[in-house]
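Task: sequence design from structure.
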């Protein structure tokens, strides 16, 4: 019995030692400010994402048809129009200064874990970018993408939750991965998208 107790004590001590040495979050995140992937521990803590950016049903009167998507870039929210004066609201990241845009179009395509081909203009600004990046957790488009018309713009995921509520992208609208997965399931190809300030 004493041997069992000693073995258990040694196991717990080893487990505690490992938990203190191994980083709590060893995942990589895309730093939208530097446009580079970093270890999560390299990123300064910002206190987590605020509750206002979390997905929630809100009262929202709109003349848009049910199932339409309205992006308010000024307030940094995306609204999925629902029945009875309601909308499902998501916090989003939007285009940084010089990359803002507004307009109306339709969702023309949806993709799970999309590959990414940075546009030529973006590669000219950032020559270290790859010509193509296959879909997956390290891809800046995140878990899902909804393509807007024939534009280069998308509603897409991000593994960088700190970019939500910020103006940091090259024009695309980014949502947390769990939110873009939810939106992907709710929005059909052909749905109206309105982006306004």
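Answer:
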């Amino acid at each position: 019995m004493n041997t069992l107790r000693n073995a258990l004590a040694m196991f717990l001590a080893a487990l505690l030692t490992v938990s203190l040495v191994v980083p709590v979050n060893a995942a990589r995140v895309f730093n939208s400010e530097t446009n580079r992937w970093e270890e999560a521990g390299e990123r300064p803590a910002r206190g987590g994402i605020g509750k206002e950016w979390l997905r929630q049903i809100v009262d929202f009167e709109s003349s848009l048809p049910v199932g339409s998507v309205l992006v308010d870039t000024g307030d940094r929210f995306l609204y999925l129009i629902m029945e009875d004066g309601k909308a499902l609201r998501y916090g989003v990241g939007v285009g940084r200064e010089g990359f803002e845009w507004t307009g109306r179009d339709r969702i023309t395509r949806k993709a799970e874990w999309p590959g990414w081909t940075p546009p030529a203009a973006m590669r000219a600004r950032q020559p270290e970018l790859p010509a193509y990046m296959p879909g997956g957790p390290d891809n800046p488009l995140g878990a899902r993408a909804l393509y807007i018309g024939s534009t280069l713009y998308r509603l897409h995921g991000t593994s960088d939750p700190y970019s939500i509520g910020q103006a940091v992208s090259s024009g695309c609208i980014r949502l947390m991965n769990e939110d873009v997965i939810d939106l992907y399931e709710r929005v059909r190809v052909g749905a109206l998208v309105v982006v306004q300030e």
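DSSP finds three helices and 13 strands in the chain.
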